[in-house]
Amino acid sequence: SSELTQDPAVSVALGQTVRITCQGDSLRSYYASWYQQKPGQAPVLVIYGKNNRPSGIPDRFSGSSSGNTASLTITGAQAEDEADYYCNSRDSSGNHLIFGGGTKLTVL
Amino acid sequence: QVQLQESGPGLVKPSQTLSLTCTVSGGSISSGGYYWSWIRQHPGKGLEWIGYIYYSGSTYYNPSLKSRVTISVDTSKNQFSLKLSSVTAADTAVYYCARSPIAAAGTGFDYWGQGTLVTVSS
Question: What percent of chain B has pLDDT over 70?
Answer without folding.
Answer: 98
